[in-house]
Amino acid sequence: MKFVICDTAKELSRVAGSAAARLMQIAIKSKGYTNIVLATGTSQFSTIDQLISEDIDWSKVVMFHLDEYIGLPVTHPASFRKYLQERFIARVQPLKQAHLINGEGEPHQECERLGRLITSRPIDVALVGIGENGHLAFNDPPADFETDQPYLVVDLDEACRRQQVGEGWFRNIEEVPAKAISMSIKQILNSKNIICSVPELRKATAVKKCVEGQVSNLFPASILQQHSNCTVYLDKDSASLLEQLKIR
């Protein structure tokens, strides 16, 4: 695990998005295409904007995404399918392939479908974040570090659901679905490169526990410490509790 600590969230997004683009360009040059994973949520808005602005042949990009609520219509403002369709897919030239999670079908069958697809498409670059409760994708604590399933059905804990309300996706916690489909921890770690973008003061406690604490499924994103090609991008606020603050 490596770190880049920026002065502002805006700079973080610019640097992280550009780093992801370089890795994608390397993969395209090497093998003619690249397989990527995109995260969603408010923390990823600007990083995705930066990625879109880069010089990438999108017709050579295969995209997967991390997680989706079960039972939430694609028309709902909080739908991650809607998020990616509007904030990414519609803004770039047609992708080689885009594999979105359908949370409205039978969830276990959807996990199996996605699992077959992603195991035949090794991921070059995964863009992820860290939740306020330390989750990685929707793998809330205590996360399953052992399953080999690429995608699985997960329960969302109260802290995770409250974060969704706090970010403005839902009016109250009762509206937040209790279950989701999530890419598993092992599948995320199978990515050749991981770009982890974590801005804002509200993430500072989770960052400290996941970066400086022991690897534990109680702080799921701490597992990123074990990935040799993971870079965590922080701003001054999200890095404010770290013992050794190094500004880029």
Structure overview:
This protein is α/β, with parallel strands linked by helices and 248 residues long. It has a single domain (2-235), classed as Rossmann fold (3-Layer(aba) Sandwich). It contains 7 helices and 10 strands. It has helices spanning 9-31, 45-53, 80-87, 107-119, 158-166, 185-189, 204-212; strands at residues 2-6, 34-38, 61-65, 67-69, 97-99, 125-128, 151-155, 179-183, 193-198, 230-235. The strands form 2 sheets. It has a 7-stranded parallel sheet, sandwiched between helices. A 3-stranded antiparallel sheet has the order 4-8-7. Helix 1 packs across helix 2 (45-53). The longest helix is centred in the N-terminal third of the chain and has 23 residues, at 9-31. The chain is globular and about 40 Å long.
The CATH architecture category equals 3-Layer(aba) Sandwich
For the biggest sheet, the summary is:
7 strands, parallel
Give me the count of strands: 10
Evaluate the radius of gyration: 17 Å
Q: What sort of overall outline do the alpha carbons produce when their principal axes are compared?
A: globular
SSE arrangement, N to C: EHEHEEHEHEEHEHEHE
Q: What percent of residues are in strands? A: 15-25%
Kindly state the mean pLDDT as a whole number? Answer: 95
Instruction: Using the coordinates above, name the CATH class.
Output: Alpha Beta
Ends distance = 16 Å
**Strand order within the widest sheet?**
1-10-9-6-2-3-5
- As residue ranges, the low-confidence spans are none
